[in-house]
Design goal:
Distance between the termini of chain A: 73 Å
CATH superfamily of the largest domain in chain B: Glutaredoxin
Helix content of chain B: 40-55%
Radius of gyration of chain B: 17 Å
Bound molecules: iron/sulfur cluster, FE2/S2 (inorganic) cluster
Number of helices of chain A: 26
Radius of gyration of chain A: 28 Å
Number of helices of chain B: 8
CATH class of the largest domain in chain B: Alpha Beta
Oligomer: heterodimer
Strand order of the largest sheet of chain A: 14-13-24-23-22-15-16
CATH topology of the largest domain in chain B: Glutaredoxin
Mean pLDDT of chain A: 96
Amino acid sequence: MIEIEIDGKPLQAPQGAMIIEVADANNIRIPRFCYHKKLSVAANCRMCLVEVEKMPKTVPACATPVTPGMKIFTESQKARDSQRAVMEFLLINHPLDCPICDQGGECELQDNALSYGNDNSPYRETKRVVKDEDIGSLVATELTRCIQCTRCVRFGQEIAGLRELGMVQRGEHSEIRTFMKQALKSEVSANVIDLCPVGALTSKPFRFTARAWELNQHPGIAAHDAFGSHIYLHTRRDELMRVIPKDNENINECWLSDRDRFSYLGVNSAERLLSPMIKRNGQWHATDWETALLFASKSLNQVKQKYGNNAILGLSSPNTTLEEYYLFAKLMQVLDSQDLTYHVRDTDLRDAALLPEPHFGISIADIEEQKAIFVLGSLLAAELPLMSLRMRKAILGGACIDVINPFNYDFNFSLTSETVCTPQQFAQELASIIKVLLKDTPNQALADLAIVKNAQPKAYHEAIANRLKQEEKSFIYLGALAYHAQDAALLRMLALAIANLTNSQFGMYTDGANSFGLAKIHRALSIPVQASTTLAANSNHKAIMLHQLEPSLDCANPYQMDKLLDQAEMVIALTSFKEPNLLQHADVLFPISTLGETSGTLVNLENKVQNFAGCIPPKGEARPAWKVFRVLGNLLNAEGFDENSTHEVLNKVFENFPDDATLPSLAEIAQQLADAKFQPVDNSNTAHDECYRLTTWPIYRVDNLVRRSDALQTSGAAKPAAVWMNEATMKKFQLQEGDKVSIQQSGNTQLNVYLEAGLPDQVVWVPAGFNETSSLGENFGKIVINKI
Amino acid sequence: MKLKQLVSPETLSQIDHWITKYPTTQKQSAVLPVMMLVQDEHHGWLTNELIEAVADYLGMSHIAAYEVVSFYTMFESQPIGKHKISVCTNISCQLNGAEKIVDHLEKRCGTKLGETSADGKFTLREVECMGACIRAPMLEYNKQYYESLTPEKVDELLETMK
Ligand code: SF4
Ligand code: FES
Ligand code: FES
């Protein structure tokens, strides 16, 4: 620490800090455009000029490090004159038409012009004009307003790791452009909206719909992935107008994924269900809540009476709040059924006894501190966009990252090693790493496992093992492809063994925003943990309750779900949207609240419990789901179900909220793995006229709300429903990119062929979450492709 | 397409030679000479495909490579005439009559500064100080400086261009 003085105030400052950082830390205001705390110093706008004693000219505060005894003046005549001069130059080429600019009212240029500018300018010449460019459905451009601060360029280069915007030409002709007019493809592209100090880059969907000063701001939690990013919801009267990030250094820093930012557009979708509906003789009729609730409770009661225990199945979205799921679970108990799950996409829970809840061994902020990272089966930026940014920071800080993936996926950072194999081989790959480790740390139980015995470690297994072992901060991450794999439980156990042998931390992807919290409800209420596929296979449930779930789009095996729903006598859906498949199968629809319309609690992957409040009234007749469960409980004359707010429900949840589960020991893992049930299930060979299907839920197909955000659906990072394969596979089946093929896997569908060079031979990627693929079966496995 | 498929083996080996001059993690430092080599081999201008190929070869983003191409007047990203003449109009040259030289060139070449003649023969470019102020005004043609220009000298030069 050194002593300095700003505006006569003596201050302590860390050696080497820039003047602007010290000023910011001490609430001394210095105007700026190009400086941003998360970006490198460009010092190109000169707005931050300040006077420093003994320096002949004013200096940029963002690029001048403090030195002992430095005396800085931010408001002296000299500083003011410089700031005023810079402001005058900046305004030469900037339009002075704030009333028709979308940024007006929240513009850094406007604010600084007011505080530091002149009220008049002698400039009478023409201003330059820059043509706008269409850079996709999320970010609108008005490039005449650009002041060339390059924040947006540095964001792509330094933070996103995908440089899409650039400053082309030079001098007076400088312009922000993409290469060949491309739509932005980054999953975090819209952060440039917040970064741009002026109205050059603004939110396309929000643009010109409201003024900043008309909006009310409400804190909230984003509900599409397990990060639980902090957001602000902006409302005008009773409308949700936009979502922006809320700073939280420990979670999302000042960023937000495009998914969390633009999912709100789904709230006003034309498919919104606005009143309860009952199907009579195949016809849907709108009705009132009372009728619908009575109808549902009576039907549930009948099924319970007629078929006894476990005749009713409950399926919930993994985005559900603790309160909703708790009451859902309580209701299921009243209905004598244990068959409730939110594990709709992952299929293998053989390890439930040992690992009753998901695990993430480090904090989000700690990700960037890791020195060795091993990733198995992950399209990282598409599953947890902000985790990708954190890992990138670790890499920039010198970490090694090894990846085993089913295809060459473009990470937004460079990898130390990358190995491609199918999910069928994942377990064997992990066993190979274990075999290497056992050389130094013998463990008979593990060595005796068939899978370890058969392993033939290669050089890269050795390298991964050594890196994990040598580095003190090492981390193993199992991504969505491992979580959804048919051998997911086996993979978790093997990865845990590796973590144990190398003293690494272990973390896993989970679906939705609340898998970590919902697991705790299962533990608290002793509800067995089962996958939807297992539940559907083992019994013919006569009544099915769906909560914010669209089974044909959200489940691991939509074909199986379709059959199950077909044979059910009663299907009750709590949903915000009228989805065609739901309309076909359901008997009652309850309209329920979605983003912003209800309060609740989510648990993120750090096991951090986060509440949020509602800020707009639900659309139409919609009501919060917890109330629906509560009233159903009342109508079934059950004990309890007397809560008057989510807060009261949460208190009930917390009465019996389990502590975080401890991880199994190495001995327990080894013992478990020796059990016959831990044989790999997914070990079939692909015949020569078949392909192996890989599935992911593309980033904007993960839940019913994002699927209805049109801007996301048409953005650069959205993927179409199609079948991807490499060139060799195309050749083998005599296909070309763009061809239509018929696909058979339980059901049938037709899809277009796309090229994805990174896939192994005869492995095809067919995404889920689309109507086009909702007639197919399991998310992994054999698939037959025929040219039409 | 890959750069390998787009340039001759000789050019490629020159490119690789340039790359060896920089640390292996900073291949993109070679972007200027590499673009120059590629441009010289492709009728004096760089297509988007070439820019992409160079960027991929040097491990830089496409837009970053395009920034370089658009920044320097010596790179062209549109088709140009057979002869490209770059005239300095910066201060020293201007004080010494660059304007007259420009007028003369425009008349003789049948095109405006910054444009290409209809017959595709000449492209006139305005450039900033080329460091030859001592013999201003000047122009550059085919990597050669022509200095202390007069309209007569310009005529002589144009005679040599067929
Ligand atoms: S578009 Fe905005 S962020 Fe980008 S350089 Fe211009 S003013 Fe800065
Ligand atoms: S903020 Fe310091 S020069 Fe731009
Ligand atoms: S001003 Fe023309 S060469 Fe310097």
